[in-house]
Each structure stands twice: as structure tokens, then as C-alpha cells.
Amino acid sequence: MKELKGRKLILILGVPLGVGCFYLGNPVFAIVTTAIMLLGIDEFFRMCELKGSFPNRIFGFIVTIFIALAYSGIYSHHQITVLGLSCLAVISLFIIEIINSKKEPLQNIANTILGILFVPTLLGTIIHLRQLDHIYYSNITLLLFISVWLCDTAAFVFGTKFGKKKILPNISPKKSWVGSISGFIASVLTFFIAFKLDYLGGNYSLNDSLVFGFISGVFGQFGDFGESLLKRDVGVKDSGDILRGHGGILDRFDSLLFSSPMIYIYLLVFNY
Predict the structure, then answer these.
(1) Sequence spans of domains, the chain
(2) Whose CB among 14, 56, 106, 243 lies 3.0–4.6 Å from 10's, allowing a Cys bridge?
(3) Does residue 137 come out as left (phi exceeding 0), alpha (psi in the -120 to 50 range) or beta?
(4) CB neighbourhood size of 71 (10 A)
(5) Model pLDDT for residues 187-227, shown as the tens digit of each residue
(6) For residue 71, what are the contacts with CB-CB under 8 A and spacing of at least 6?
(7) How many Å apart are CA 39 and CA 18, to the nearest integer?
(8) Residue in 173, 73, 59, 158 with CA at minimum distance from that of residue 111
(9) Tens digits of residue pLDDT in 48-89
(10) What does the pLDDT read at residue 203?
(11) Could you tell me which residues are beta bridge partners of residue 166?
(12) Is the separation of the CB atoms in 131 and 26 below 8 Å?
């Protein structure tokens, strides 16, 4: 019942907010996404602290903002600059750890870098996807949001009603094969129908729409499992409590952590 209420909350509040931000475009979309990234990396660092690590939260926040600026196109065309800033960030992190002299420096540095890679680096790709939508008059970003939500909903509904054989019980005990397959079908159908209705936009083919659906259906669920893996290791049910009993930011955006970067990579390699 609690999980069902959480889904209704997303439907009532999250969907209109997401659609509104999509149509407003950047910089509004980028600013909202950056806020989500900051909250997400904060949740990741809090989970690390439960394991006795002390990641550098302020450093992570600063780098998150620079990553958001890069994906927004502020300086992304200067690849050497981005590479140089990455090197500077790693060196700075080591120097800060040396000065602070905290316990478990290896874990602190590793978890800080992992948090930056796991949350803003992956999730930030959605900002650039929205930029590409604006340039090529497409709706991939909005459809990705819709597809991962429908995937999650279909997996929950059909998995709860018909799912018996669990897919990865050690990581996510409630997820079943029936639910996973149902979610995958929902994702593929979302992009397929959008293509047939000429809503996908751009110059995308039927094959492109099927690839988008495949990525959303497969990697969206792997993102969910990935976050569950971390929570299982830490020993918590939710990544945070910002949504008042309905989980944290990472709980609500975990499906985008892997699906958005994979679509981003596909577009960079095969379309642009």
C-alpha cells in the first residue's frame, strides 16, 4: 500500500513537474536536474557514511555543478578544458584528504569519486539529451521519462499479480521475471507508439525507436538493481527520506542512471 501511494504521488506531482520542465527547456530543465543531482549525490554520500567512510561532500557538490555546466554546453566543446578540470579535481581531492588527515583516506577518496561518477556524471546526461531534443526537434527526453515510469509501473502491477519466480532475490526480493518482462515490453511499446504517431521527432527510424525502447527497458531496470545493490550493502530500505516516507531522490530516479547515459552514447555514436 505504501509503495502504491508513492507511485500515485509521482503521478500527481512528479509527472506534471517533469513535463513542465521539459517544455520549458534549458536553463530551467538544467537547473532542476542539477538540484536533483545535488540531492542524489548527498544521499549517496550519506549511505557511504553509514559504512564508516567520510566522502568529501562539499567537493562533490562543486564538481556536480561543473558537470551540469558541461552537459549544458557551457564549455563542453572545449574537451581539453574538461579533461584538465577532471585532472585538477582528482589532484585537489587528494590534497584535501592529505590536509584533513581523516580515517580511511582510500575509502574517502574512492567513495567521493564514485559518487561523482555514479550520480552527476550519469544522470547529467539527461541535460544534454534535452539540448539535443531542442536542436533536432525531438522528444527523446520526455519519452524516456515516460517509458521508465511505465516500465516501473508495469513491472509493479504485473509482478505483484502474477510474479512468482524472483529475478534477483538477493538484491531486490520483490522483483520478478514476469514484472521485469512486462516492464521491458512497456518501454519498447512507448517508443514504438511514439514513432508511429510521429512524436519521436528528429530523423529517427523505426530501428532507432526500438533501440531506445530496449535501452530504457533493460538499462532502466539495471539502474534500479544497481541502486538496490548499494542499499542492500548499506542495510537501508530507501536511499533517503526527502519524499516523506516515499524514499529518496535516488529511489525515484535510479532508472535514469543507466538508461539516460546509454541513449546519450547511442546518439553520439550512431546519430550525431
Answers:
(1) 2-270
(2) 14
(3) left
(4) 26
(5) 999 999 999 999 998 789 999 999 999 999 999 999 999 99
(6) 30, 124, 125, 127, 128, 131
(7) 16
(8) 59
(9) 999 989 999 999 999 999 888 888 876 555 455 556 767 788
(10) 84
(11) 176
(12) yes
What the block records as the C-alpha cell of 88 is 585538477
C-alpha cell recorded at residue 151: 516500465
Cell numbers for 36:
536533483
In 3D space, the residue among 152, 94, 82 whose CA is nearest the CA of residue 121 turns out to be 82
**Residue 101: all three cell numbers together:** 588527515
Q: What separation in angstroms does the CA of 198 have from each of 142, 150, 188, 192, 201? A: 14, 20, 15, 10, 6
Give residue for cell 564508516: 52
Neighbouring residues of 208: CB distance < 8 A, sequence distance ≥ 6:
195, 200, 271
pLDDT for the residue 93 = 85
Amino acid sitting at position 129: L
Distance in angstroms (rounded) separating the CA atoms of residues 218 and 221: 5
Q: State how far the alpha carbon of 31 is from the alpha carbons of 24, 120, 209, 266, in Å.
A: 11, 13, 28, 25
DSSP state of 119: I
DSSP structural state of residue 245:
S
* Tens-place pLDDT, residues 137-146: 999 999 999 9
In the chain the first and final C-alpha atoms are separated, in Å, by 45
Q: Alpha carbon of 47 to those of 67, 123, 249: distances in Å?
A: 22, 18, 13
CA distance 228 to 233: 9
Task: Map residue 146 onto helix, strand or coil.
Answer: helix
In three-state secondary structure terms, 176 is strand
The pLDDT value recorded for residue 33 is 93
- The distance between the two most distant Cα atoms of the chain, rounded to a whole number of Å, is 59
